[in-house]
Design a protein that fits this description.
There is one protein chain. By secondary structure, this protein is an alpha/beta fold. The chain has 3 domains: 5-150 and 192-214, Rossmann fold, CATH 3.40.50.620; 241-298, Adenine nucleotide alpha hydrolases-like domains (SH3 type barrels, Roll); 303-385, Elongation Factor Tu (Ef-tu), domain 3 (Beta Barrel), CATH 2.40.30. The chain is built from 9 helices and 18 strands. β15 (338-346) and β16 (349-359) form a beta hairpin. It is globular.
Length: 386
């Protein structure tokens, strides 16, 4: 099969049906140029699928205001790495520009959430509303039955429901960031890395003949904040923040003024370092009050909460979240989770009552509910309950 590499928005759009060669079907593989997505493409190819590679350009590093060298999924080097694998393996590869789709939704939400005193998780939002939508749109255009990504998770099917389950590698499991995918997405999604751990994936890269790829470093930063300095990014998007909000007050949990801060959007629940002043003992951000530009500080025990309200709930394993069900609830990525009772209080809104107090419930972050390894569903934390 002749290999084709092109940029989607330059007009590469042609019929694929006449070149179908695989009885297993055609799969669109999201390729960032990293080891996980590359091995995913290799595995699907080896398993007999007709692979079409696609690399999504989501962000311009020059627009981020960062001085860090361009790296990661949107860099030219990564795009070239993905293209070279496609050429070597002999399958089609496309580059699509979704910067406008990505920026309008994910970036605006990221800024708006911090301005509302919440802590967003843009990767989850991007998966749920941008990447899968972009992938399915192009999959349909190219007559691909399936899409595949390099996430460490599994898709399971029971009766009429598709749902996410944890991957084999506890340290790499990404089920938490996939709670928002709907049934239409899940029914066509494949995660070939789910049954493997990271060392096994690195070994597969070697076995495929990609020694350098097997040693490639991983990227953990938000793609549009490559230096991990979200405060700098907020200032670049809203230059007036510092002038308008500098001089806000730190309060203790009883309401006493104990200092000044540089603006509430620059703080997150649970933060201890970077407060800008010493208090004689460790102090943590326990609450953010955007309407008064107040950041409340307390001791570690003051971070403990009995429950929370979660909205925008997506039920995954069942038609709806079982009312009064008891599930392991994870409130941040790599959080071990805590057992809680989940009560339906409105459409797509639940109240979560923890069996024992948990620390650092942050509005804006995601809460994901598990039954053993299976994702029951998840949503966005609206508020904590003391």
């Amino acid at each position: 099969m002749k290999t084709l590499c092109c940029i989607w928005n330059l007009g590469c759009n042609f019929a694929f049906k006449e070149i179908r060669m695989s009885k297993k079907g055609r799969v669109l593989v999201a390729m960032s140029g990293g080891i996980d997505s590359t091995v995913t493409a290799m595995m699907m190819h080896e398993q007999g699928y007709e692979v079409v590679g696609i690399t999504m350009k989501t962000w311009d590093y020059a627009s981020s205001g960062s001085s860090k060298k361009e790296t990661g999924c949107c860099s030219l080097d990564s795009i070239n790495d993905a293209r070279e694998v496609a050429v070597h393996m002999g399958f089609h590869h496309f580059i699509i520009d979704i910067r406008e789709e990505f920026g309008d939704y994910v970036i605006d939400n990221f800024v708006d959430e911090y301005m509302a005193g919440r802590t967003p998780n843009p990767c989850i939002l991007c998966n749920t509303h941008i990447k899968w939508s972009a992938l399915l749109k192009r999959a349909d255009a190219m007559d691909c039955e399936f899409i595949a990504t390099g996430h460490y998770a599994k898709v399971k099917h029971q009766k009429n429901r598709y749902y996410i389950s944890k991957g084999k590698d506890d340290r790499k499991d990404q089920s938490y960031v996939l709670w928002g995918l709907d049934q239409a997405c899940l029914s066509r999604t494949k995660f070939p890395l789910g049954p493997y751990d990271k060392p096994e994936v690195r070994q597969m890269a070697k076995d495929f003949g990609y020694e350098a790829l097997s040693k490639k470093a991983e990227s953990y930063e938000i793609c549009f904040v490559p230096d991990n300095d979200y405060r700098r990014f907020l200032k670049s998007r809203k230059p007036e923040i510092e002038k308008q909000l500098d001089g806000g007050e730190f309060h203790d949990v009883t309401g006493n003024i104990i200092g000044k801060h540089s603006g509430y959007p620059f703080y997150t629940i649970g933060q201890r370092k970077g407060l800008g002043q010493a208090f004689g003992e460790p102090m943590y951000v326990t609450e953010i009050l955007p309407e008064t530009n107040v950041v409340v500080l307390g001791k570690q025990d003051d971070l403990m909460r009995n429950g929370m309200v979660v909205g925008g709930v997506n039920s995954m394993k069942y038609d709806s979240i079982p009312n009064n069900g008891e599930f392991l609830t994870q409130i941040r990525y790599n959080d071990p989770g805590a057992m809680a009772v989940i009560k339906n209080i409105e459409v797509d809104v639940v109240e979560v009552e923890f069996q024992a107090e948990v620390k650092g419930v942050a509005p804006g972050q995601s809460a994901v509910f598990y039954e053993n390894d299976d994702v029951i569903g998840g949503g966005i934390i609206r508020s904590s309950l003391k």
